[in-house]
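Weekend entry, working from home. Most of the wet-lab plans are on hold until the incubator is repaired, so I used the time to fold the two sequences that have been sitting in the queue since the last round of cloning. Logging both here for the record. First:
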Amino acid sequence: MDVSTLVDELESDRQTELSRLGSSKALYADTGGQLDPDRVLGALADETHHVAATLRTWAGETDPAGVFADGAARLDGQHDTLADELADDEPGEMPALVDALADADGPVARLGALVGWVLVVDRKASQVTGFFTGQADPGTASLIRDFGEDYDAIREGALAALSDRSDDGARETAQSAAGHVIQAAYDDYVETLESMGINPKPVC
């Protein structure tokens, strides 16, 4: 499968959703409107925990090129780092986009869904980095910024595994699964903000 333009097409097709998921409003939604350091780190820790658990489950079934096991190990390391920063590291509820990720069935859909998740979480993590920069906490900002290397590795591993697939319709399956994850994250963002009486669209 030719994956050279897969990410570009996803970013183009889902430009609005990804832009808003990478905004400060998304961070506000993820923390339930409580923008304090523990809530910000806790939201990222919860997502990281549940995605790692999902990838471990997948790795126990079919794991193309060890992508899922490697991703789980990387995210476990991130969660350990986040837990060290938190007084209470008990995982919360599974976020909607992780539910959507876990819905993916079959290795091609799972690899595509993982690419979609990385496109979302990379933008969310950038907001977390910006939050701690604004809090005059460069150490924590740098810690979260370093997670980007893991996200890049997970995305590239998934794309490399997809490039080895020659299944009929594999590209469409992967792209659809990625889009499903992005849409689930966006729908949750919209519903959460609207329930708080906040317009989810940017106000210019």
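Second, folded right after the first finished:
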Amino acid sequence: MLMPERLESHLAQEHIPYSLVLHGPARSAQVAASFMHLPGKEVAKSVALCAAGKPLLAVLPASYRINVAKLSAILREKVQLMEEQKCNELFPDCEAGAIPAFGELYDVPVYMDQELADDPEIVFSAGTRSDSVRMGNADFVHLVKPRVCSFAEKNR
């Protein structure tokens, strides 16, 4: 599977410089980070969630986990993982578990954890289990306009 056409077109249309990083098929962002010889903190994962029946994406370092209570408090709504079927319907051009962090392409708001906000670059899934995108974090924030807040904590 290739990077979703809508993501590739979006980056080209906005004249955003990026590089595509190919790696072995990864079942998680943390595994992708190890394939790319990067620390998990430097690779972002996107997690599809629901709050009050509405979808959202949480973008956080691969080596972190979502503190659901913190994110629920930020949203003032109970947050839960999106069901797999709903996820497949909402992101039909992506492989399961490989959602790119560009929620605006799917009309889904993005919440970015503060831990990623100060990094000069961001690396995230390109919509497949074997492709990742590396780009400037400022370009990412400019395009996606995520709400930056603190909701993640390091895995133990």
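Plan for Monday: verify the second prediction. DSSP finds six helices and ten strands in the chain.
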